[in-house]
Write a structure and sequence with these properties.
51% helix, elongated, mainly alpha, 13 helices
Length: 435
Amino acid sequence: MASSVHNNRLSSPRSFGCCRTCNMWCWRAFKWLPVILVVSIISWSYYAYVIQLCIFTLESTVQKTIYLLVYHILLIMFCWSYWRTIFADIKQIPEKYKLPGEELDKLLSAESEDAQRTILDNFAKDLPVLTRTMSGSVRYCNRCVLVKPDRAHHCSICARCVLKIDHHCPWVNNCVCFHNYKFFMLFLGYALIYCLFIMSTCLPYFIKFWKMYQKYKHAHCDRLIENGTYTKPCMDMITGDFGTSASSGRYHVVFAFFVALMFATTLGSLFGYHCYLVAHNRTTLDVLLARLGRDRPSRKIISNFITAMIDEAFRAPMFRGGADKNGFSLGAFNNFKEVFGNSPNLWMLPVFTSNGDGCEFPVRREHQLQTFAPQDAHGYESMGTTRSSYGDGIIYPLPQPDEDTESLLSSERWDRWGERARPFDERESSSYDEL
């Protein structure tokens, strides 16, 4: 018995490792199910539209040619944008934001909260970060062990910090962020146009089939067929367009119309919402708190726990002067160019043209430092600031050490990491913030 217990003890870690590996691969496969569903719907829509509508239903050759040409152009742009959104190269946070081992040891061994805050402030003083936590401290991710760049958040599904993350989208199995936000916008736009085109071109035949069905029901053909009697009008409809030979294609066309209508309704609202975000230079994480007014009666119904989670995760960006939901807004057209780039010829193509590097963003003038150092030979400020790479002349101020004495860990708790404890900011690491 002792030997069997000993063998079980030895085999437990191995079996645990196998189960963990199996669960990991099952979870990875499960995350692709929404993408597979979308691809399946697109494949079926191709069959329903091209084969059943254009080839078997349309009679005019000119009409077939025009429908097929427009359809395939929209399909190519739609699938291209979808592909780029899914397989976009989501780059890692630059190494300069990561705490070196020496600084991390100092942070973990600091005896007071003020000392920890000083360590983070000293490390971040040369980094182009302007946003802060609710307590005014540097935004730090203890999972990735780095100072978060502006508008970056930790994604618990991807298990890493992501630059300018909007949300993690299960339909693309990827984070919608700085590196693929343009592709995501084009994907929504082309998907909406794709659905509207299918819906509009299928509508006349949907009406035609509906009238035929009403005529069929009005003649009581279904009852006559059940009784074994046939009339000439019924025989004409059965042997004609309403017969069994055309029923399969007719149902595909009708179903394609309803599916396109359903998706067009959903995509229209989602695309309109993201157009609003682009025009105001916000992300989903930036805007939701502003939409959930603190004094609305409906919020009183929500439990305090859920309310706190929403308030902490979806708050407006916090600057030195306070929260400002429009802190990154530069005007609708400049906000549009920040996502789609400066080249109009490439705006509608799913190629990366977004301005900047995802770490630094131009801000409104009231959030910029008022004192700037003399310019160097290249026209840039030699110290204390850095200039925008967008070509718009907007200056990025480098944050100086914060003199505020507010406690860094006023709302923090300690979490275990390895054999040592580390600071853990609940406001910066709530499950909603890690979407």
